[in-house]
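Recap from last week: sequence in, structure out.
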Amino acid sequence: MKIAVVGATGLVGSVMMKLLEERNFPVTELIPVASSKSVGTWVSFKGAQVKVCSMEEAIAKKPVIALFSAGGGTSLQWAPVFAEAGIYVIDNSSAWRMDPNKKLVVPEINAHVLTREDYIIANPNCSTIQMVMVLNPLHQLYGVKRVVVSTYQSVSGTGVKAVQQLENERNGIAGDMAYAYPIDKNAIPQIDVFLENGYTKEEMKMVNETCKIMGDETIKVTATCVRIPVIGGHSESVNITFNKDFDLQELREHLRAAPGVVLQDSPDANLYPMPLTAYQKDEVFVGRIRRDESLPNSVNLWVVADNLRKGAATNAIQIAEYLVKQQFVA
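Predicted structure tokens:
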């Protein structure tokens, strides 16, 4: 079971390797891959040092699965090359997500759509993943009609440079800027570039990916995505309108029973999800559940997850685990 990690020296790539260890994925040989400037360097895996190789070298080693986290351009260029060589690609970029011929997968929701012929599989956007993990079980019960979501996203979602910018600003150090503005003591209402409709690409990812993952184009989503000075963990304020009324206690119990979801909803004890408590966890946390008293059939939720884990690396490895379970790879 040879496994390649493309983008092994990046934030998500390093978490992918860590999770392959933690989850006891049956790796017989790890093949770390990175850009030309990192080829020949070393990464740590299961207590050993493994040399980083090039794309061509990785393909020649014939891994069965390649976990990609190296940006959209790299994925567009190289994922088809890996797939042509008979290697399953699980891609963390946005390159293939809305391709009508590629599956967009959150395993707890729609792993069943995968077939042996799906050699390029798209991993959804981090903010979308944690939201649909909560939406989907409620959709099965009440039918989701409309979602209004505001996100509070950590700097690790941007990458190492953004984490360093925040640390530098907190320590009064001048350095490279990942953002156009300071992020410490600030909130930046822009994630990715602006589109002609006034929304950012990140906001439209949440709109379009939600419908594709949940298999229902009638669900209406509107989003505002904001970057905040938190190092890890994305938070979301989600307002959901259902097609029919709901019992609040039944709704809570349904979320409590949902795979991969942890209910933290005890206002009397000041218990609710926070990035600090979601850090390095694989689950999606939900709380602050309350009926929207301004609109029929509507509820407010607060959803938090570790964006580098369930929002990226964990979801990708869960897809790989499904491929193994279904015996698509061996």
